[in-house]
Amino acid sequence: MSALPAASVRAALFGTPPATVILPFGSHEDHGPGVPMGDFRLAEAIAARIAERARADGHPALVAPAVPFGGADFFSLVPGGLTLSPATLRAVIDDLLGGLVRQGVRRMLVINGHGGSLGPLLDASRALRHAHGLLVPTLSIWKAGAALLRTQLGETDAAARLGHGADPVRSVSLALFPDQTAAAAPPDRAVPDVGGLPITSFSTLGLDGVEIDLPLESAEVAPEGLFGGDPSLADAATGAALVERLAGIGAALIGRLDALSAALQPGRM
């Protein structure tokens, strides 16, 4: 959308059929050795592939500029990390989506590349539904990518690869930005703990078979940007396959927007 003159954008948005606006959201955080911090570029590139597939299926689509800052969570203290508070991010989302609605846009799809942004995104989309009867779905690409990796490689192989600083982000980065992404060595680290309790995720500790929620910081969980899977297993071919599958899912979702809206009218919530 940014590379088109306003007249071309206007013609696409209000053509027959009208174009869907795809809005990528990413972040700027530590993804471990060899992966650029600006993962918003991955969300933007995947959004562009989705638009290409949608257009090939007869559904016009435009990609908005990526929002490069994610909602602040456990990565907010990473040197070089750039985040927005959840309240600020929610205001940004409201302004962006609300501005498009005021222009007359009724077809939108969010591509989310940061877990800390999902809450504000869902709250904003719910508010749009209540106020305008509009449905704006969100495709969280890394959650979807993890599920796709399990079907692509099998549970055992996927489990060895999935983690922060590892897959699916690392393989996708190798596929989309091979000149800027370096291979990583196998991790050499013990499972971190806090007060003798093992860290089970970026916001939980394990105790007697259950998880305890705790506001941890990334430096406590993953001081080198790595947690979970083995980053050395990532490869460009796996990443390219994930991108194509995500593109197909996003394009299929665009093709179903009208059916979703018809099925979920304001009076049937």
From TrEMBL:
<keyword id="KW-0862">Zinc</keyword>
<keyword id="KW-0479">Metal-binding</keyword>
<dbReference type="GO" id="GO:0046872">
    <property type="term" value="F:metal ion binding"/>
</dbReference>
<protein>
    <submittedName>
        <fullName>Creatinine amidohydrolase</fullName>
        <ecNumber>3.5.2.10</ecNumber>
    </submittedName>
</protein>
<dbReference type="InterPro" id="IPR003785">
    <property type="entry name" value="Creatininase/forma_Hydrolase"/>
</dbReference>
<keyword id="KW-0378">Hydrolase</keyword>
<dbReference type="GO" id="GO:0016811">
    <property type="term" value="F:hydrolase activity, acting on carbon-nitrogen (but not peptide) bonds, in linear amides"/>
</dbReference>
<comment type="similarity">
    <text>Belongs to the creatininase superfamily.</text>
</comment>
<dbReference type="InterPro" id="IPR024087">
    <property type="entry name" value="Creatininase-like_sf"/>
</dbReference>
<dbReference type="GO" id="GO:0009231">
    <property type="term" value="P:riboflavin biosynthetic process"/>
</dbReference>
<dbReference type="GO" id="GO:0047789">
    <property type="term" value="F:creatininase activity"/>
</dbReference>
<dbReference type="Pfam" id="PF02633">
    <property type="entry name" value="Creatininase"/>
</dbReference>
